Structure formats: structure tokens, C-alpha cells
Amino acid sequence: MVYTCLQTHPISSRYNLPIMKVQHKYLVLIYAVSFVFGDEPHFKTRFDYDEQLLEKMIRMEFQYEQWEKRINESLEKMEKQRASIHTDLEVLRNEREEFDTHVNETLTDMQQLSELKDAQQLSKPPHSTILFRARKVADYTLSTENQIIIFSEMLSNVGGGYNSASGKFTAPVAGTYLFTVSLCPIRGKSIFFNIVTKEDVVANGHTYDVAGYLCVSGNAIVQLAANDVVYVKSTYTPDVLLQGGLKDDFDAKSNYFSGVLLHSI
């Protein structure tokens, strides 16, 4: 901006007023020229400010939409994960219930098995070993067919299974048993015998019209239930057994019946 100072003309003062008016016009003109052609002042108008504010709001709205989109996507992923976790928890809960049921059933079965074993232990006889051995036949002249041969002298009877009065052995417990019999007929006579259990012949033997003194024996391994009966019988009428005093080498000791429990069930 240019400032110009006009001096007062030295003429009479009556000329001062017109000169001041002329100076004022020049001053206004100089101001106008300096405003048009001089440097333009830098400032923002109201319109520029509103425009920039609108652009900023538009950018912020766009960013907000992007943020909202990302947040919604994150929430959607979290919801899917939550649903997946809920499903997994349901599966685990069902598997846990099945496992608990299986464990309870197993414990029940184990308890029942233990009670069954205890009951079986209580049902067993006091003797863990069962065996017997008997000799000395009650009737050496077996005059009746299918006569039970009774061994009257007991050498051992652990478990009390053999009855020396009836000649029968009754199994105290179920298991596998071994039975052995030895019979010696007198010279010139014979012996036919069967080992019988549950009315079935499980072993047999015989000698017939021997010239000297010969013993015959037999054995059987059988599976018995508790209270099954085993005995020896003669199957030929003229059977005559050797008895003590007739021959020292074949006395009453050679006629015997024995049995032993091999394995209990």
C-alpha cells in the first residue's frame, strides 16, 4: 500500500479547501489501485470453511462405515466361534454322560462279579483238597450182575466224598476228577467191571479164566458237577475177587478204589 502526502499550496487559505478535496480524491484512487493490483490478503471465506468441514465429515462417515463393517464382521466371526464352542460343549457333555454311564455300568458289573465270587467262595467246602482211597472189598463173591463193589476200609477221605457203606463217591464241588480202580480175581476166575458216573460208563476192564494171579486196573478222568455220583460195579455173575489170606502176594491190598480232585470249577 502506497501513502502520499500532499502539501498545502502556499496561496491564500481560500484555496485550501478545494485543494484538500482534490487530495482526498487522489487518496481514494490510490487506495483502490493498491487494493486491485497489490497483494491480495489471505483468509478463508465462510464457504471455504463449510466446504472443508463437509469434506471432513464425509471422510469421517466413510471411515465410520468401514469401521462398522469391520466390527460387524468381527462380531459375526465371534458369533460363529461362540456357536462352534457351544456345539463342542454339547458334544463333550454328551460324551461325559455316556462315559459316566459306562463307568457306572462297569462298576455295577464288577460289584456283581465280586459278589458272585464271594458267594462261590462261601459255597466251597472247607477242604481245598478232595481225595479218597478205599480198599478191602465187602463182598468178594460177586454173585449178582451189576452189583456195586463196595470198598469198606477207608485209607483216606479228605472232603468226605466217599461213602464206605454204599461204595459211592459224591462230588463235593464241581471240577475235574481222576478215578482209579484195581481188582484181582482168584485163579481160574474172572472179573468184569465198569466205572460209572451219572449212569454212564466212563471206563471198564476185565480178566477171564486166568491160570495164575493177575490183577486188572482202570482209570478215568471225568468232569463232574457238584453232587454227581461215581461208583464201580461188576457186570459178570461168576466174578470172584481175591481176598486176604488166600495168597500173600495178592491180598486185600490189591483191591482198591481211589479218586482225587484235579481242578475245581
Automatic annotation (TrEMBL):
Keyword rRNA-binding: no
Residue ranges of domain C1q in the record: 125-265
Keyword terms: Coiled coil, Secreted
InterPro entries referenced in this protein's UniProt entry, alphabetically: C1q_dom, Collagen/C1q_domain, Tumour_necrosis_fac-like_dom
SUPFAM superfamilies xref list: TNF-like (SSF49842)
Compartment(s) of residence: Secreted
Chief subcellular location: secreted
Protein's name according to its UniProt entry: CAPR2-like protein
Organism of derivation: Mya arenaria (Soft-shell clam)
Gene3D superfamilies hit by this protein: 2.60.120.40
Coiled-coil regions, chain positions: 64-95
Keyword set includes Coiled coil: yes
